[in-house]
């Protein structure tokens, strides 16, 4: 798998045997300290960099940052890819508009890469986890309900949905020209207050997470798309989002082995893992060493910058032979404490193969940031701060992985587009998406009964107007005998809600906890939106218990629905008669219905089917929740 390292060992062995037998001297096939040319080193370093091209402006705005999505490769960026021979690119939702555009953009980037001196193809990547983190437009691709929903189906369905979703994700991404997916998340979510992982995890049982994560990754890779297990050594017991701060996990080594590391260890033991992503998290039980931050403060090394964690533990103890890629280096867990060049040097010293989003390249004025970074890394090699041998071995791992997975499309552009349009969002993929949502629906408290015979009028309280519309339409498709009203918690009208509730026989109230994180919005450039979401979410949460008590005081039946993490049910739904969990609330307007919007929303369709007796709620909680 890794030609250089193996050649060295084999060469040394041959040399020893030959010397014993013939008493003559010989040299290994490849000398570990053989001097590499500057051109080779520069190419090696470029291969170790994965850039983001989310936005691009010909000229930087006078104030703020560029926010113009890059949907067509400009010549400036094509030249940058050609001239540097950079190893990879990550794209975001803003880069992706429709199937022909996605195919053309990815082909254009590959064409530019193949014209570089190295002629190495690009890793073209994205975060298409499913559920709350999906970059391909939801009205085109198949986003699914996400990992915790898959975890909820395991008791009844085993590996069915992990394998099936991995296959669909792989097929759709491959057809569009992607070859790396930064998924699945195999963090074991043992912290109910985790602001960033929560439903992105398969659950709290490490063995279950391992089984489902491995199955999904293996199915994806069988379709020709590299899966990425993340976030090593584990992001499941954090109360801080590494997009906004530097989390610290205080587990002892025994707990780390039993919980955090177990999914990674199981996958490595099976020899299936191509790529693992690091976490910007401090683990004092694994590495308590410190380094100087850009402010001059001594801080404990996060895993991304720790040789003890990435080389000694991941490579040495666990025996990982694949690629180590960092999480985005513009996240606060790194960028608030280290200058970009310092952070890249430290993570390469730690043992990382590829660094993700190390510099900003969003305008013509910023394009020199990439060659300048490569120059700085060259200087670090020359000074001995970085090992030329390790850099070269790392680049060879990258090239070997590309040789296995990056199969260049020889079809015409028209043929590639036609193939992608036949695959992306195919009818059978959407049917699987709905089936997963149906089978994941979990009844936490209450009886498997339909709407009571005496319920003729249902009042709903939803997080926003789009959820109201989604649920109203889902109910209208499943029953004609129910009058439905709905109030939105955004811009909540207390007087109107009271009038509607007075006229209803039953209240259905839904909640989303926690608020959206930066990774769901896209990245660090969306932090202002994330903060606004959090403020609005706090106001909504304060209303829910009071609304439930108000309905109960009027002797009305109450159903509470958790649309995200089910932990909130213990706090918000103590007085509800029925408590349900969907783990997802994905929805979008069906194309062509914009004037009279028709909403596609699998989770709400499942709820409506359950409430009208079409299906049972057969999911099982994959995390512990106080149901009393």
Automatic annotation (TrEMBL):
Organism from which the protein derives: Bowmanella pacifica
Gene3D superfamilies referenced in this protein's UniProt entry, alphabetically: Glycoside hydrolase family 3 C-terminal domain, Glycoside hydrolase, family 3, N-terminal domain
Pfam families registered for this protein in UniProt: Glyco_hydro_3 (PF00933)
UniProt protein name: beta-N-acetylhexosaminidase
Lineage of source species: Bacteria, Pseudomonadati, Pseudomonadota, Gammaproteobacteria, Alteromonadales
Transmembrane segments: none
Xref: InterPro entries: GH, Glyco_hydro_3_AS, Glyco_hydro_3_C_sf, Glyco_hydro_3_N, Glyco_hydro_3_N_sf, NagZ_Beta-hexosaminidase
Family classification: Belongs to the glycosyl hydrolase 3 family.
EC number per UniProt: 3.2.1.52
Catalysis: reaction(s): Hydrolysis of terminal non-reducing N-acetyl-D-hexosamine residues in N-acetyl-beta-D-hexosaminides
Keywords: Glycosidase, Hydrolase
